[in-house]
TrEMBL record:
Signal peptide positions on this chain: 1-20
Protein name from the UniProt record: Zinc carboxypeptidase
InterPro entries: Class_I_gatase-like, Peptidase_M14
Protein's organism: Algoriphagus marincola
GO terms, molecular function: carboxypeptidase activity
Length: 846
């Protein structure tokens, strides 16, 4: 009895809320009564709670179950195994022909195919929401918008179903969303607390913006370091949507932003001007109309950047579509005070709902126009590529098969045509060998992505960067590359096979593995984990191997058959298995007496200690850098890393570890006794790997004693207009740019590198002088180091006089300082090994 009474009551309440909610979000709209609204399904009005991701998916499953106009598919999984879903909505006939519609759209984007009749093609609209987990209004808007498209009875809703195929991604970052939603819901007060200081509005470190590994997924459409973006971009290329949205939140005191972005300064150099000058203003009129209707304030053409190709709103601009970024004031929590009064969660959701509808209306009104633009985009790409004087880019690293393979696969993931290089080729200082290098012609539909991969940009319309100003991916992968008009393309590469090496049979004195391959550190760690004793040969030598005389570089890994704790047969089985799994070539030697150079028992050969790594994390520490390190060690080395909150450092016994990592940050919360413990541990042999501002903290503690580069500062004008401060001060930052550095190839930090010059990525203003000890600055900048991205003249001068990597010895231990970021965004495969060398060979460095 009680049960029945309750359910009648809840039905009544739900109906009441449904009425008020519908009126708030969709005034005047009628809905198909067979389809439950989100609040009817969830049992609470949208805006009352942060909806858990599994419930978002459940609502979409319900729509799929009830309506023939809906299809829900899973395109992949996040790190934490949440499904990545796409909800497709269209009228019955379009749903019945969905695959044909998709193929026609792909044909439209392919200038080698006849152009389909665009008057017959529905608009392909991709509504993407929630890439930043703690900007939660957009995923709630995704529930309401889906409901409106499926069940709305207005003329516009019917037109949307007839004239478009809508593809909804409710949450690009489900892991981050749930992290934040849990926080906001579990700190909610009754009544709600609008005070910005309340715990509800102030998430704990690292917050829900990022994914599992603390990466900003709204930077990952280019690097594709994570499954969320890998599956997304793969999916994107199956559709080439005409319009793609990307919904965000900004400060609570702000209003609403939609494109156009700031002219020139924040635009991407490869995107056709038509996108910015013609299409964006057309769409902006729709957004303005809808926002004027509800009286919500907004702005355009300021602040937000649209240049970095890894944004979810910029990648579509480089693929013949229109990418659109939207930002609403945030209630961050359910209700928060602002200069305009209290901002409710529902208010922020409604802003995104109306702009979702505005996007749909603009897309169908301009359906044929946007189709023609998509075609024109790829046709002009091929034509411009044909005129590009580079004609071809050739690339390949002679010594690192795995990194080559990763880069070729990366280009293929972005649908770039890649060919084998048919002949040995010399361009400048680089030799590109047949079989170990590849050719990318500029005359191809993905020409604009080819430029993104291989061009350095140094000239900018503006000097303030919201983000990176350089993204040359060939440099990030550490690929030797060059424009080579005369290169001969061979067979087109469709997939990249992993090499298989034959394991040398017969009795061995020792086995050798070259350190050049990207996955050599992974193999080494697996050998150590299997209990195998491994040494490193610190000087070059030549040995007689199963393949005759072979030259080995310093840094070659040796597995001696003596000094092992496991049986010979077990060792060989493990070694064979690990080498095979990681594509490592193993050399066998039968004697320690080398043909030239040092012998295998020299004093310049040392045991490699198995890394036991601890990293400090928490407030004050850069979660991005810490996340990059965590992700690198997990995914590229398979090495566990203990992440300790700075609060818990007092409980740490550093002598249980041999390597401490300090990502950028201030560690001021560490107590004096903790700092004394750290000093003692370093003195007795510990290795600290320190990034950028962490090195300044170490200096302040007297743990190191390095000096900043001091230049006479250029006199600045005594007074400047108030309104110019952002531009003037912003120009002094190093937002993210690429420099050529020079390696000391004899130093352990450079093991595995065969070429002296290496591009490095910098996004800090910390310029530290080379070490006073002339042997301890193994990476410096070249004389003219600036390769790409923005830097002021004054900063470039300081950079030239500073160190990229330097070592500060202390007692029996040392600090290895990195002033560039060797692991930036999981994209800098070319410099990862410098960082891993500091972990594996720290104790060989002084
Ligand atoms: Zn955002």
């Amino acid at each position: 009895m009680k049960k029945i009474y309750l359910s009648i009551l809840s039905l009544f309440l739900t109906a009441q809320f449904a009425f008020s909610q519908t009126e708030y979000y969709f005034p005047g709209e009628k809905f198909d009564p067979e389809i439950p609204s989100p609040e009817e399904f969830l049992g609470y009005p949208i805006g009352d709670w942060h909806t858990r991701y599994d419930l978002i998916v459940k609502y979409y499953e319900k729509l799929d179950e009830l309506s023939d106009l809906v299809k829900l598919e899973t395109i992949g999984y996040t790190h934490e195994h949440r499904p990545k879903v796409i909800l497709t909505i269209a009228n019955e006939s379009n749903m019945a022909n969905l695959e044909a519609i998709r193929q026609t759209q792909v044909q439209l984007a392919d200038p080698t195919q006849p152009k389909p009749n665009v008057s017959q093609m529905p608009s392909i609209v991709h509504l993407g929401y929630g890439v930043h987990g703690n900007e939660p209004s957009s995923a709630e808007a995704a529930l309401l918008t889906a409901y409106w498209i499926v069940a709305g009875q207005s003329e516009l809703a019917q037109r949307v179903r007839e004239e478009s195929v809508v593809l909804i991604d409710p949450t690009l970052n489900p892991d981050g969303r749930d992290r934040h939603s849990l926080w906001a819901n579990s700190n909610k007060g009754f009544p709600p607390v609008a005070d910005p200081l309340d715990r509800e509005h102030n998430e704990a470190w690292p917050g829900g913006r990022t994914n599992h590994y603390w990466y900003d997924l709204n930077r990952d459409w280019l690097p594709l370091a994570h499954p969320e973006s890998q599956t997304k971009v793969q999916w994107y290329h199956q559709w080439y949507p005409n319009v793609t949205t990307d919904f965000h939140e900004m400060g609570t005191n702000s209003t609403y932003f939609f494109e156009p972005t700031k002219p020139y300064g924040s635009e991407n150099p490869v995107v056709p001007r038509k996108n910015y000058d013609e299409i964006n203003p057309i769409f902006a009129n729709y957004f303005a109309k809808y926002m004027d209707e509800i009286g919500s304030l907004y702005w355009t053409k300021e602040v937000f950047d649209n240049s970095y190709p890894g944004y979810g709103s910029t990648y579509p601009d480089i693929h013949g579509g229109l990418g659109l970024v939207f930002e609403t004031a945030s209630s961050r929590g359910h209700l928060q005070a602002s200069q305009r009064g209290d901002i409710s969660f529902a208010f922020t959701i409604r802003n995104h709902v109306v702009n979702s509808l505005a996007t749909l209306e603009a897309a169908i009104d301009n359906r044929e126009y946007m189709h023609d633009y998509l075609r024109e985009f790829f046709e002009t790409a091929v034509a411009e590529g044909r005129k590009d004087p580079a004609k071809n880019y050739v690339f390949g690293d002679e010594y690192d098969e795995s990194r080559n393979r990763l880069f070729v696969q990366f280009l293929l993931d972005h649908q770039i045509d890649v060919y084998e290089n048919n002949a040995d080729l010399r361009v400048g200082n680089n030799t590109f060998k047949k079989g170990k290098s590849w050719v990318v012609p500029t005359a191809q539909p993905q020409y604009r992505m080819v430029r993104t991969m291989f061009e350095y940009v140094k000239e900018f319309a503006d000097s303030v960067f919201y983000d990176a100003s350089a993204w040359t991916m060939a440099a990030a992968y550490g690929m030797p590359f060059a424009a080579a008009p005369s290169a001969q393309s061979g067979v087109e590469v469709k997939e990249v096979a992993k090499p298989v090496f034959e394991f040398p049979e017969g009795k061995a004195y020792a086995y050798l593995i070259d350190w050049s391959d990207y996955f050599a550190p992974k193999a080494l760690y697996e050998l150590q984990k299997a209990g195998i004793h491994v040494e490193v040969v610190n000087r070059p030598f030549q040995s007689q191997t199963q393949e005759g005389a072979v030259d080995f570089a310093a840094g070659t890994i040796m597995i001696p058959m003596g000094f092992q704790k496991i049986k010979d047969t077990e060792l060989i089985d493990q070694l064979k298995n690990i080498a095979n799994k990681n594509q490592q070539k193993v050399y066998k030697v039968e004697t320690g007496l080398n043909l030239s150079g040092i012998d295998l028992g020299s004093n310049s050969v040392g045991a490699v200690q198995q890394p036991k790594v601890i990293m400090l994390v928490g407030p004050g520490v850069s979660s991005y850098e810490a996340g990059e390190i965590w992700h690198l060690l997990d995914s590229k080395v398979g090495m566990p890393i203990t992440k300790v909150n700075t609060d818990d450092f007092g409980r740490v016994n550093l002598f249980d570890y041999n390597t401490l990592i300090l990502a950028s940050g201030n560690y001021n919360s560490l107590s004096n006794s903790a700092v004394e413990h750290l000093k003692d541990w370093i003195q007795r042999g510990g290795t600290v790997v320190s990034l950028k501002s962490a090195s300044l903290w170490l200096n302040r503690q007297g743990i190191t004693n390095e000096s900043a580069v001091e230049l006479e500062e250029k006199a600045e004008p005594e007074s400047l207009p108030f309104a110019s401060s952002r531009d003037f001060e912003g120009a002094k930052a190093v937002g993210g740019s690429i420099y050529m550095a020079e390696l000391d190839l004899t130093h352990p930090i450079a093991y595995g590198y065969q070429m002296k010059n290496i591009p490095v990525y910098r996004n800090s203003n910390i310029f530290i002088q080379p070490s006073k000890n002339k042997y301890l600055t193994p990476i410096r900048y070249t004389e003219n180091p600036h390769l790409g991205g923005y830097i002021s003249d004054q900063n470039l001068e300081k950079l030239k006089q500073s160190a990229s990597v330097l070592i500060s010895p202390s007692g029996r231990g040392r600090v290895v300082h990195f002033f560039d970021n060797p692991n930036f965004r999981g994209a800098w495969f070319g410099t990862n090994k410098l960082f891993l060398n500091a972990i594996f060979f720290g104790n060989q460095m002084d």
